[in-house]
Amino acid sequence: MDVYQIIKRPLRTEKSVADGEATNSYHFEVDLKANKIQIKEAVEKFFNVKVEDVRTLVRKGKQRRVRFKIGRTKDWKKAVITLKEGSTIDLGY
């Protein structure tokens, strides 16, 4: 997989911003098929930093209703990247 296909977008939530300041970890939405090794290599190449730890979790899609039809949102994978001391990523927030 290509680096640009693995990392989809950074997540900007209250929890992710607090984690970035407190524990030097960043949250990203990543491809469902990517494993921890691929995510680590992608972040190191893309942002030119050293990664210490990668934690992943799959968020299940929710059931949604529009008028009379019931549908479901997609499942997605979240990765929490912890960087080594001295490394930072500037995401603009």
From TrEMBL:
Q: Which domain of life is it from?
A: Bacteria
What the record says about family reads: Belongs to the universal ribosomal protein uL23 family.
Q: Which Pfam families match?
A: Ribosomal_L23 (PF00276)
Q: Which InterPro entries match?
A: Nucleotide-bd_a/b_plait_sf, Ribosomal_uL23-like, Ribosomal_uL23/eL15/eS24_sf
Query: What species is this protein from?
Result: Candidatus Brocadia carolinensis
Q: What does this protein do?
A: One of the early assembly proteins it binds 23S rRNA. One of the proteins that surrounds the polypeptide exit tunnel on the outside of the ribosome. Forms the main docking site for trigger factor binding to the ribosome.
Report one GO cellular component: ribosome
GO molecular-function terms, A-Z:
rRNA binding; structural constituent of ribosome
Alphabetical keyword list: Ribonucleoprotein, Ribosomal protein, RNA-binding, rRNA-binding
Sorted alphabetically, the Gene Ontology BP terms of this entry are: translation
Q: How does it assemble?
A: Part of the 50S ribosomal subunit. Contacts protein L29, and trigger factor when it is bound to the ribosome.
Protein known as: Large ribosomal subunit protein uL23
